[in-house]
Amino acid sequence: MPSATAAIQGLIGRLFFRDATVTRVEDIGRSFRRLVLSGPALREVSWTPGDKLQIFLPGIGSRTYTPLRWDSSTGETELLAYLHGDGPGTQWAKTVSAGAAIQVFGPRGSLVVGGTPPAVVFGDETSLALARANGVPGRTVLEVTSPGETQAALDALSFSGVTLVARQSNDAHREALVDAVVQALQAHPGAPLVLSGRAAAIQGVRQGLKARKVEFAAVKAKAYWAPGKVGLD
User: Fold this and answer.
1) Residue 82 and residue 44 share a domain
2) Boundary-marking domain end, from 47, 77, 109
3) pTM of the entire structure?
4) Which domain holds residue 73?
5) Rounded CA gap, 14 and 42, in Å?
6) Which pLDDT value is given to residue 153?
7) Is residue 233 situated within a structural domain?
8) Secondary structure of 4-72 as H, E, C letters
9) Cross-strand partners of 62
10) pLDDT for the residue 61
């Protein structure tokens, strides 16, 4: 039986969501899928790098993605899905095929990137699209489960200069994350800092930077997920 949230989102979807079609699906290794969406309703849309787009899943609710790009003249946008866990959002991303009709809500403001100066982005596998939308090599630090799988996705996106830090149990890699973020900030004085991804990792990096008295221009943070929790974004 659909949840109350899903029922409310279903009503909103019928009123405010845009119709779109999945026109292309590309598997990138075992952990990622690139999805291209298109349709007349996606034309003449105002999009800022870092904006979020919600995909309406009937009977389930919605799942949020950060578009890699948006072509408002042709009505086409591109998403990168990280295939982790076995929740309904992941199952949809794993099984959706070209030709599928969907509804989307947005784009809407979230973590704005791509400005001047470009941000230093911290995150994880769920942050790849945000980092790519930022568009500048050498300013991204990601904690990842499989550096090889993530690097394959980065190569497919033609995005280089990303520092990958392998996850360890009990967050034993936290100091390595803080080291990498400090190095990125020092290499780009005046760059704002954008923190995304796992809630505990964001907190750990913030605490580490504070303990080291690291100065930076500004900070924006948004947790995309935490173990056992949904709907953080």
Assistant:
1) yes
2) 109
3) 0.88
4) 4-109
5) 16
6) 94
7) no
8) HHHHHHHHHHHHHCEEEEEEEEEEECCCEEEEEEECHHHCCCCCCCCCEEEEEECCCEEEEECCCEEEC
9) 56
10) 87
What is the crossing angle of helices 199-211 and 174-187, to 10°?
60
Are 150 and 99 in the same domain?
A: no
- Based on the number of CB atoms within 10 Å of its own CB, is 156 exposed (0-12), middle (13-18) or buried (19 or more)? middle
CA distance 4 to 90: 21
> Which pLDDT belongs to residue 45?
93
pLDDT mean values, one per 10 residues, the chain (233 residues): 54 74 95 97 95 91 93 97 88 96 95 88 96 92 96 94 96 97 94 96 96 89 84 62
Q: What distance in Å separates the CA atoms of residue 229 and residue 227, rounded to the nearest whole number?
A: 6
Q: Kindly write down the DSSP assignment for every residue of 89-124, as one continuous string.
A: HHHHHHH--TT-EEEEEEEE-SS--S-SSPPEEEEE
Q: What is the DSSP string of 147-215?
A: HHHHHHHHHHTT---EEEEE--GGGTTHHHHHHHHHHHHHHSTT--EEEEEEHHHHHHHHHHHHHTT--
pLDDT value for 216 = 81
Q: How many CB atoms lie within 10 A of CB 196?
A: 27
Task: Give every strand in the sheet of 140-144, ordered side by side.
Answer: 162-166, 140-144, 120-124, 193-198, 219-225
Contact by Cβ (8 Å): 70, 107 = yes
Q: Residue 202 is encoded by which pair of tokens?
A: 């964001």
